[in-house]
Fold these 2 entries.
Entry 1:
Amino acid sequence: MTSSHRPHPLFLGIDTGGTYTDAVLWSEEPRGTGTVVAKAKSLTTRHDLAEGISGAVDAVLDKAHVDPAAIKLVSMSTTLATNALVEGQGGRVALVMIGFSEADLGRDGLKTALGTDPLVLCEGGHDVHGNARTLDLAPLEAALPELEKSVSGFAVCAYFATRNPAHEIAARDLIREKTGLPVTASHELSAKLGGPRRALTTLLNARLIAMIDRLVAATEGFLEKRKISAPLMVVRGDGALVSAEFARQRPIETILSGPAASLVGARHMTGLDNAVVSDIGGTTTDVAVLDHGRPRLDPEGATVGGFRTMVEAVAMRTFGLGGDSEVALEDGGLRPRIKLGPRRVVPLALAGMVHGEAVTGELERQLRAPNPGRMDGRFAVRTGVPERLAAGLTPPEAKLYEAITAVPLPLDRLLTSNAQNATLNRLVSRGLVHVVGFTPSDAAHTLGRQANWDEGAARMGAELFARKRDGRGQPIATTPEALAERVLAALTRISAEVILETAFAEDGLDGAATVAHALVQRAVDAHPGIARFTVALDRPVIGLGASAPLHYAGLPPLLGNECVVPEDTDVANALGAVVGQVRVTAEARVSQPKEGLFRLAVGEFVRDFTDEDAAMALAEAEVRAIVAAKARDAGTDAAEIEVATDFKVSTVEGQRMFIEAHVVATASGRPRIAV
């Protein structure tokens, strides 16, 4: 940076994925454009995410040859909250429910989510118009001395708190005064009705606070050691950025942060406002839709770990399809089709690179056999998890697990019966054992389109698979190359199918089983009689993932639209983390509990008016003030505010009758940067 011109500010984007942590250094230029200066990957270290972050960031700084002090903004997307909910992790939390009964626990999975964590029920709450019932916090006050010693935080949910949060505020203030522990109140997270689901969302948020706090603290500590003095932002599940401090209080909002960041990155890299985004990894393919430059959100709230929350997040569909998907043949039929996934297996090329002769020698032995074997090209290997996780195995499982080692063993020598195959599958589902087998990644190595692992092991695997017989007793492919081409073509075809399934689901035709029927039905409706059937997306596809250039090249003729694969597709998440905007909302409601009385509920107060216009004017003024403050807390000093009002009215004998008004203010802007 020897130029006399003032250099463009440098932004650092980080994404902690399930396998890799990515880092991108991005130079912002005028009018929102920018350039990727450097990018790097490091293996994610689940025991201490800061290690993986350190590896990726140090690598990207070394590549760019820049002074860390030149970085003016750091932003990260993370799967931490998502993984924690899927794996049932989090702190022990006390749930305080005001105005509810124990029967309400049976709704929306709340009882399952609560598990053995403590529950406190108190009298109180409000009605639909915000009128108070009698509040009694004595049970809570009596329980606090014991709870203070055994929980990491509290979740508070009161009946109709979205119409009047007074009782939640009273409970929150009491808990903070007596214990000093973190408290999440449901009205702070959602303005939607539905008490049990709001309680569920609040409970999950309270569980995640300590976890996200540790991640943010570790990241801040790492940045301080590298002398990077810049604001730290986090990607929310809807793709917006918020300050790390904001995310600390509302960690539930970071679920699906990674997929949301990839959509923001896809839009930035391509400039496309309307597209279907398909992100292919080793294990899964994630598909979502961009509309008018923003990700489509799930209107029902994000579902993670089997729990439907009230968190606005991207409407993402995930399929068990990737470069490491298991390759198999359909049962029956004269010319069986190639099946892929949904299970991930370790590619033969990767196993061959790591274990050498232990894998390649066995493949050579199987190739020398005069006839193909049912278990050719398949191995079992331990995953390396701690031995304590193998507790509770049945005798057959324990016996087979004992026989499997850290070096891959061929299944044709390991298994002696079909029953043992089922036992092996149970060990795989427990996460104790990996199966090694032929994958699309091996097919790519066989054809020379991928070269990071052992090409010889991949080719022998392709040769073994090609010897399998079809329904006529003939080999399914004449050469390893022909088999590999067929596998890669299958991956492209199935990718088209999952993209179409997502498109039909967005059009209201949900479910994999309806896809083919819906396509044919639509064709029949439009063209009765003999007709050529075609289908086309109304928008292009953006292909993301390191293997997207290989697997998505053949998509356009299958989908009737182009497929754009950006240059930096392999780090779309990390780029999305740094190019997004802060966006927050605030809501107010004006209802009419009785004729001539207009009740405003906004923020943490409720006020009555006898004039509708006065109530509406204050509603707009208040949501503007609240959203401006939230935007500053979320990390922007330059927010633009838009206000939308939705009236519910009826007409009685020609007269307009006011029922309710919903006022929503949205503030958005670029995050503040270090000066």
Entry 2:
Amino acid sequence: MNRKTGPEVADLFIIGGGINGCGIARDATGRGLSVVLAEQNDLASATSSASTKLFHGGLRYLEYFEFRLVREALEERETLLVAMPHISWPMRFVLPYHPNMRFEGDTPTGRLLSRLMPWMKGRRPAWLIRLGLFLYDTLGGRKILPATRTLDLTRDPAGKPLQSRFRHAYEYSDCWVEDSKLVSLNARDAAQRGATVLTRTRVTSATRQGDLWEIVTQGPEGTETFHARALVNAGGPWVEDVIRNVARINSSEGVRLVRGSHIVTKKLYDHDRCYFFQGTDGRIIFAIPYEQDFTLIGTTDKDHKGAPKDAACTDEERDYLLKFASQYFANPVTVKDVVWTYSGVRPLYNDGAKSATAATRDYVLSLDANGAPLLNVFGGKITTYRRLAESALEKLQPFFPQAKGPWTARVALPGGDFAHDAVPALTAALKSRFPFLTDYWAARLIRAYGTEAETIMGNAQTAADLGHDFGATLTEAEVRWLMRHEFARAAADVVWRRTKLGLRMTQEQIAALDAFMANAAPGAISPAAE
């Protein structure tokens, strides 16, 4: 290997800088393995930045009897809350219920009900929903999050934005997560532990050479050749392409590309709870308070036929989400309310399911040990990324008997070394230390950087001490931190992935940021986080 930062022969070479690739890199490096990771674009530039931003068990997966997946995800919610309290926090979800609501019957639960209770004709009885929520409360050994409760929507503020026909609801717990920030922090932690993380570096070929893999990349340093004892294909939507066109291996395994689109609207209601809406087509969507001044609505489930990079929210999907939400909200949600849309492609394991909605969200790890080992990662949920990484290392353990055991549970990510309920106190302390910060600014910094927010601020006495003001509270000090520590290279990395300040900045401000980063790049960026 040419780089001074990496080993002559790495233990693992990982293709893909999404949550699965970066999660595996962090776990493996902490076990004492040498790791190189290559991502063709920015970290979390595809699926991992286009989620619904939830650490959740997947309440609707109970309809498909996926109890193991739900239990594992529920167990992970609180494990992850402890490890990253700055970028993940509890939220309460309101599930409105009306006895005449009907649902698509083509799920295991729907088919069972149609046989046992044909007179229900697609309706879900209240006792069944309560049973599902009881399982949701108990399967994961919940300790931090509050339990489900019943709401009277005629009295509770959560009923005010809804149509008057909804008089009752159930309120349960799940968690928010800043998805792309989760990826960059895993990559940073891996780099701090010794991994080499290469962004904007495409793997052009991977070839078995005896008991090693020879990997050729094309990136900022030109063409480079690496050698590794094992190859991990965490290419996400490109996992099948890596198998066939990069490693050139014949395989019957593949992915089902499912597009999930979201819309962001102006703020639709004043309280801080989320809504779980059930549709007559068997789908569900969420309406979630977003970035303090907006509402996030999603997601769709549509089979995606084009290139993953071309995923975009279509007018049809936008209108579907608007119509869906308007079946619940008293004031219809219209195109005029939409301020932004985004879409990502989920690489679900192709299990032959009839519809995109029914396809499994569980992950599948496929090991090819015909020579130097190749581990292909299919599917997965952001909630279970840490468990997926542990399972991946378990698969690879026979090839690396010197590797240490699992270690990541409840170990804080950078900036997350504080109690899960201490965000208000940290925010107040930051504002006290730097009185020129507004409430919004201080809260945003703590939610992005946790205990490291004060380090970013340095000895600033005024906002001007933080350098150039790019707008929307984004300063030169923060941008340089993201370039040095979180692999940001261009404006989009900062304003749409490390933050969501693109919702508040003008095109001119974003262009100025891009120019600044391009000029600052040679002297400001380290290939490994400091």
